[in-house]
Design brief:
Layout lengths: L1 H4 L9 H15 L5 H14 L6 H29 L3 E2 L2 E2 L10 H21 L5 H27 L10 H27 L8 H24 L2 H4 L13 H9 L2 H10 L5 H13 L2 H21 L4 H14 L5
Antiparallel strand pairs: 1-2
Helix pairs in contact: 3-4, 3-7, 3-14, 4-5, 4-6, 4-7, 6-7, 7-8, 8-13, 8-14, 11-12, 13-14
Pfam families: polyprenyl_synt
Family: Belongs to the FPP/GGPP synthase family.
Cofactor: Mg(2+)
Length: 328
């Protein structure tokens, strides 16, 4: 990791500093499923129409994949601080580690700066280098904007469910999740393939829509999914999240039912959580979700099939097949 980033912040005599930096990287960058990073390699292979890349092509695709994983780590380190979270990937959040604390803020900045160093070291001579820099900067800006929308909607001031609606939910999801999780890996693969991203506006829109659908699935599984399958116990109700379920409930509930939401949503006691879940069942939101899922899938299929490039169609279908009707 440090070799990739040409890391030389510490002189050779400060071995302890280097060890701490390696520990921070291992703790925060590793441990996930690496789906975003691996998608760069898979998409690049598909766009080139090959099963095996040449050595240099593999290295460059892997490098961009790791840049996305670095970006993910940077987002998560700071997001956990803002949300005052306890655990991440089965271990204490980085800022919860006793020796770390709020030094984690600076560690997040270091993680982000590694991306620029990696890109400079390995892509500076490439014709698409500036496009890569612009891409990562733009996606980071959109994700930070989504985080801000989430914070001022969910966390800022007194709890107010009147701020929650489908448009707000959609904006948060698109900016906070969809761009960096779905669009960024494919955009990196397109640039590696020598393509101009300006020619793929429709592809961006499809991937952002796919990311929105993915997050709606997450919101649904948080309440109705099997904790054994999804690997966690959902807490969107307790955390007062602007989830797809609560905005659907607000849209379809009568005044009495809205009163139940206002009284119980955002409370952590089991009785209040159960009342909200019972209301979701009363409003038949499970059926509403399955209708949304079916309609989203059909629209995405139609949009994908309208793409002139068969290779691009194949890339988009591979993303959709991974998430359609997922249970975790």
């Amino acid at each position: 990791c440090l070799c990739l980033a040409d890391y030389d912040a510490f002189p050779p005599t400060q071995v302890q500093g280097i060890i701490v930096a390696i520990w921070m990287l291992d703790y925060n960058v590793l441990g996930g499923k690496c789906n975003r990073g691996l998608s760069v390699i898979d998409s690049y292979k598909t766009l080139k129409g090959v099963d095996v890349l040449r050595k240099e092509e593999t290295f460059l695709a892997c490098t961009l994949g790791w840049c996305i994983e670095w970006l993910q780590a940077y987002f998560l380190v700071l997001d956990d601080i803002m949300d005052n979270s306890q655990t991440r990937r089965g271990q204490p959040c980085w800022f919860r580690v006793p020796q770390v604390g709020l030094i984690a803020v600076n560690d997040g900045i270091i993680l982000r700066n590694h991306i620029s160093r990696i890109l400079q070291r390995h892509f500076r001579g490439k014709p698409y280098y500036v496009d890569l820099i612009d891409l990562f900067n733009e996606v980071e800006f959109k994700t930070a904007s989504g985080q801000l929308l989430d914070l001022i909607t969910t966390h800022e001031g007194e709890k107010d469910l009147t701020k929650y609606n489908l448009n707000v939910h959609r904006r948060i999801v698109q900016y906070k999740t969809a761009y960096y999780s779905f669009y960024l890996p494919v955009a990196c693969a397109l640039l590696l393939s020598g393509e101009n991203l300006d020619n793929f506006g429709d592809v961006k829109n499809i991937l952002v829509e796919m990311g929105t659908y993915f997050q709606v699935q997450d919101d649904y599984l948080d309440c109705f999914g099997d904790p054994e399958s999804i690997g966690k116990i959902g807490t969107d109700i307790e955390d007062y999240k602007c989830s797809w379920l609560v905005v659907q409930a607000l849209e379809h509930a009568d005044e009495s039912q809205k009163g139940i939401l206002l009284e119980n949503y955002g409370k952590s006691d089991p009785e209040s959580v159960a009342k909200v879940k019972d209301l979701y069942k009363e409003l038949d939101l499970e059926t509403a979700f399955h209708k949304y899922e079916r309609e989203s899938y059909n629209k995405l299929i139609a949009d994908i099939e309208a793409q002139p490039s068969k290779a691009v169609q194949k890339v988009l279908m591979s993303f959709l097949e991974k998430i359609y009707k997922r249970q975790k």
